[in-house]
Design a protein that fits this description.
By secondary structure, the chain is an alpha/beta fold. The protein has ten helices and five strands.
Length: 270
């Protein structure tokens, strides 16, 4: 557990990194802090788009903003039948790799901002839902998590299993940019083709994305649980419904820290 305010300035309740599945409300909470308490908001998804679009796809910056990531979703595309709006699986893999590289850079850039200006406070880093695919939470020297934990309090948003259908419905209503770890993606694609069709032009890309998102919910929960255990804290999204201001969020964080410290002490004494 990496919560020690004396060692890490980010743990003075002034800088938070929000982690969790797409659809849990990371951006909503971040924008609430901006509107109600004038916090700084760093959106990793938005920064990913800026990195990807700045050279060869500058037209996609038009209309691209923190609250509208559609152009990034469209750029990544969906594998499957071109007649149904899909792209080839090989092209999808290429774009996934571009997203991965941009996400690593964008996430580390958040820490770089703090390290260049350590006086920065009231700063929330709204990470991408796919950060869990880029890290090894069991490695105490993981580059991304070590960098974030040095500069921010890592907060993993968690949802009960009963909310999984809500996440799926939110994804259907407003698809977010999706990144899959490559081996996992290859396995998903092969399994989906075995169930549906070995002919790519017969694969409905929307059906595959829903299939993939459902698989990611199960896969990512375990990873985020390990991140919160080893690197920070977890907050249940049901509790966060009451958060209207930074003071509300800090109160929830303080409670979560006390609970975790008690649990850790109980484990040591057992």
């Amino acid at each position: 557990m990496k919560i020690n305010a004396n060692e890490s300035p980010g743990f003075q309740f002034k800088r938070f990194a929000l982690l969790g599945m797409s659809g849990l409300g990371k951006t909503f909470i971040s924008r609430t802090l901006v509107k109600q308490d004038d916090w700084l908001h760093y959106s990793v998804d938005y920064e990913i788009g800026k990195i990807l679009f700045k050279n060869t796809h500058r037209n996609l910056l038009d209309g691209f903003e923190v609250g509208n990531l559609t152009n990034l979703s469209n750029f990544l595309g969906k594998p499957g039948s071109q007649s149904m709006g899909g792209i080839s699986f090989s092209e999808y893999l290429t774009r996934q790799q571009l997203h991965r590289d941009a996400e690593i850079k964008a996430t580390l850039n958040a820490s770089s901002l703090v390290e260049r200006s350590p006086e920065l406070s009231h700063f929330v880093c709204d990470t991408s839902g796919s950060i869990c695919e880029l890290v090894n939470p069991s490695d105490e020297n993981d580059t991304i998590l070590k960098s974030l934990s040095k500069n921010f309090l890592i907060i993993c948003l968690e949802a009960p299993d009963s909310m999984h259908q809500v996440l799926i419905e939110r994804f259907l209503a407003k698809p977010k940019p999706m990144y899959f770890q490559e081996d996992f993606l290859n396995s998903l694609w092969q399994n989906f083709r075995n169930d549906v069709s070995n002919i790519n032009d017969q694969i409905n890309p929307d059906d595959f994305m829903i299939y993939g998102f459902k698989a990611l919910i199960k896969r990512r929960k375990a990873i985020f649980d390990t991140i919160s255990k080893n690197w920070g804290i977890s907050l249940n999204v049901e509790r966060l419904r009451e958060v209207k201001t930074a003071a509300d969020l800090i109160g929830a964080i303080e409670f979560a820290i006390r609970v975790k410290l008690r649990a850790n002490n109980a484990d040591k004494n057992s």
